[in-house]
Amino acid sequence: MGATTIASARAADDVFFLTAYDPSDLPGSSIDPLGFERGYLFLADKTLPGLTNAASRPRYLSVLCAGSHLAGIDLADSPREQYEKRLATILRLERFWALANVLASRENGEDDLPLHGIRGVRYAEPAADLLREQGARKTDASFRLLSRQMPYGAVGMYGSVAEGMRLLDRQTLQLTPDLGQRLAEGFLRETEMPRTLQKAVREGGAVSLAGLAVWGRKAHVSAETGTGEAGCFAEALHQDPVRSRMAGLLRSYRANDGDSELARMKRMMHSLGNGVDTDLREAMRTILSYEACYRLAQLGIERLLWLCRTLPAGRVGGHDLANDAVMRLIMEQLPRAAARLSETLEAATSEAFLQDIARLHDVKTFLLRRAAACNDTWSLASALMERHEAVQRGKFDRGRRKMPWLEVTAGRIGLTMTRVGGLNTEATQPEKIIPHPYRLES
């Protein structure tokens, strides 16, 4: 990924904060223009610790463990050599597996075995097309999968989850002797992975396309898992008590048609009283308040960007803001939303939820001292821009500080030279701002 951003900066609120990891290839671009990411990740960890939104297909954990298991490790090898062998074997298996998914889905149509969730499927499908055009009967795993398979594929996207679930050591890619080893063996046994394919994964070489397609039916990303593999998933999920309790709630309160994550979370929250799940209730209540603040603040930045791009002058003055219904809506609603968030945090009592609560202090301070204290649309815009500039300049991309998207020149707001960031459509209500995803799908 383009940016490596674990930087510290002094925000406009005179507090220090750490920027969230910000994957982008442009010095001005950002997924977190107002610095809400750190608080969001804290809250997500209070309900489903160890999971991520990107790692939502559990079968990838099986592929990861099976690849490590199949590596031909010689105990005489150095630790570095052992790591490289495991990595090469995992990547080779991932390529074979992705291709097997594509081949299997084409036997009976994609509706039967959909390819959703396979990383690199847009590389694997052309590889399958080329093999068909060539009339090939065998293939090796030399085709490309993703622009950079290691960081964007199974190892990069699922490695941290696998480690958090005690399946492997991310630094060595060595399996845990119990759970990780059992998952690998269960996957190989229950999907009936051919010996010839295991050999090709371990040593390189070609395998039959027909055999790969047959195996792909059983090893498919959306195929039903066997009892051994499923048992390992359940054990890994429930070994963390917080994650286990939240998983139980998710089973009891399945998503309704059209249910958003926040709506589902609200239903679950209302079902909980004081007791063993107090921390989950407090976390979900805080999430709902936090997202209300985030969507209003983010709407403010989006509105400023939209006005700068659409007004004939290309710049926004105080008169424009004073007459803008969206900015007036934000100025009216943000103080109440910030107060609710503060009250929610002050009412929290469970030790589990309150642990490391300081990670929310930065956003809370910004909301209460700056945005919520504004009494006109210009001061609101100024507060949002000050926060945005502090957040952006606290991030680095290849040694360069990131630039803010907006600036004030001669008393008017305009776009900076970066001219990046923001939505491509007009947002006029906070409901048009997509909230943070809270791992429920995972």
Question: How would you describe what is shown here?
Answer:
- The two termini are 22 Å apart.
- Helices cover 54% and strands 6% of the residues.
- With 442 residues, it is mainly alpha-helical.
Low-confidence stretches: 1-21, 23-28
Mean pLDDT: 89
The total of beta strands comes to 11
Distance between the termini: 22 Å
Spell out the helices and strands N to C. Answer: EEHHHHEHHEEHHEHHHHHEHHHHHEEEE
Strand order of the largest sheet: 7-11-10
Overall, the morphology is globular
Radius of gyration: 25 Å
Largest sheet: 3 strands, antiparallel
* Portion in strands: 5-15%
Estimated structural class: mainly alpha
- Please bin the fraction of helical residues: 40-55%
Q: If helices are DSSP runs of H or I spanning 4 or more residues, what is the number of helices?
A: 18
